[in-house]
Amino acid sequence: MPITRPGLWAVRLLATFAASYLVGISFVAVGEIIAGDAAFDSLWLTVPLMVAALTAVVAGVLAGVAALFAIVRRRERSALVFLPLVVLIFFVIFLVGELVGHD
């Protein structure tokens, strides 16, 4: 377990990222089961899905930033603190890929 405050926040935000990601996946699965291809025409399913997706993205990025701060500035060396960095690197790779363009 992390011992610094930013390290603890990084792990908490990583748990929030994982939970909201799973909730978003669940909304997609339930929508596909109930309504098929017309699932995303309903606001009752689309709005909670977007909230879960936005929560996952924000929590993932903040977890990575907190982990980077904990590792660089506070010298945190817990193995759990390095996991949010993987999420941050994943987001950065996809962001750069979208900005640079792809075929």
Give a brief rundown of this model.
The chain has helices spanning 5-35, 43-72, 79-100. It is mostly helical and 103 residues long. The chain has one domain.
Describe this structure as you would to a colleague.
The chain has 103 residues and is mainly alpha-helical. It has one domain (5-100). Helices cover 81% and strands 0% of the residues. The chain is built from 3 helices and no strands. Helix 1 packs across helix 3 (79-100) and helix 2 (43-72) packs across helix 3. The N and C termini lie far apart (43 Å). The mean pLDDT is 92.
SSE arrangement:
Layout: H1 5-35, H2 43-72, H3 79-100
Helix amount, in percent? over 70%
- For the record, the count of structural domains works out to 1
Instruction: Describe the main β-sheet briefly.
Output: none
Mean pLDDT: 92
The SSE string, one letter per element, is: HHH
- What is the first-to-last residue Cα distance? 43 Å
List low-confidence stretches.
none
Q: Got a strand count?
A: 0
Which of globular, elongated, flat, extended, rod-shaped describes the shape? elongated
Radius of gyration: 16 Å
Number of helical runs? 3
Query: Structural class of the helix and strand makeup?
Result: mainly alpha
Residue fraction in strands: under 5%
Key descriptive features of the protein:
81% helix; mainly alpha; single chain; 103 residues; 0% strand
